[in-house]
Amino acid sequence: YLSAGKLTDIQGVPTSNQTSTYALEAGIPLTTLDDHPELTLSIDGADLIDGYLNAIKGGGGALLREKIVASASKTYILIADERKIVEKLGTGFPLPLEILPFSAAPAAYRVGKLGASVVLRRGKLGPVTTDNGNFILDADFGPIDDPAGLERELKSIPGVLETGLFLGYADIAYVGTPDGVRKLER
Predict the structure, then answer these.
(1) Residues 166, 56 contacting (CB under 8 angstroms)
(2) What pLDDT is attached to residue 98?
(3) Is 151 a catalytic residue?
(4) In sequence order, what are the beta bridge partners of 117?
(5) Distance in angstroms between the alpha carbons of the first and the last residue of the chain
């Protein structure tokens, strides 16, 4: 649509260096939150979505920036396929946490004390480093009964910068199914 001139007056705020590269290659004009601290619309994928349109995000490692963009958006839309729709967040997918590298061991220990199986996300060369220079912990709590309570507890741990719990941000989710796209609204 962009190249055909059917979609105009659009700018993107990339949440990662990789997304920025892809957007520029696709001809999408980019801007920043410094220039546009409030966004009209944001669209993003999700790792899990519950019936209240709460989500777990961060499988790609950009959860802190993604949450900043979500919070700056008037309308926030999630996209997923039907396998990612769950009754309870945490079902079959760990909760990513962005942490300061200095806090890796104590943060992992304290998250584990909350009942999670915790792993420091690793790549070929060691711990995965976000575009912000931080590490990611993957915390498997299993199905999460109280996402808001868990988020409060996790964010009280020194060194935990952000969680992959996106609670109350999404207005709409578009879900791909074998029969087409289903629209879910909060």
Answers:
(1) yes
(2) 99
(3) no
(4) 140
(5) 28
User: Which segments of 100-159 are extended strands (E)?
Assistant: 117-120, 122-123, 126-127, 135-140
CATH number for domain 95-163, candidates 3.30.70.260, 1.10.10.10, 2.60.40.10, 3.40.50.150: 3.30.70.260
Residue type (1 letter), 22: Y
Q: How many CA atoms lie within 13 A of 161 on its CB side?
A: 22
Residues with pLDDT less than 50, the chain: none
Name the CATH architecture for the domain at 17-85+167-177. 3-Layer(aba) Sandwich (3.40)
Task: Report in angstroms the alpha-carbon separations of 104 from 36, 100, 116, 130, 137.
Answer: 33, 7, 15, 14, 8
Q: Which amino acid is at 171?
A: D
Task: Check if the beta carbon of residue 166 is closer than 8 Å to that of residue 70.
Answer: yes
What distance in Å separates the CA atoms of residue 25 and residue 38, rounded to the nearest whole number?
25
Q: What is the per-residue pLDDT for 125?
A: 94
> Phi and psi (nearest 5°) for 174?
-105, 125
Please tell me the distance from the alpha carbon of residue 62 to that of residue 54, in angstroms, as a whole number: 17
Is 69 strand, coil or helix? helix
Q: CA–CA separation, 41 vs 174, rounded Å?
A: 14
Catalytic annotation, pick one of 25, 66, 98, 185: 66
Structure tokens at 15: 């949440």
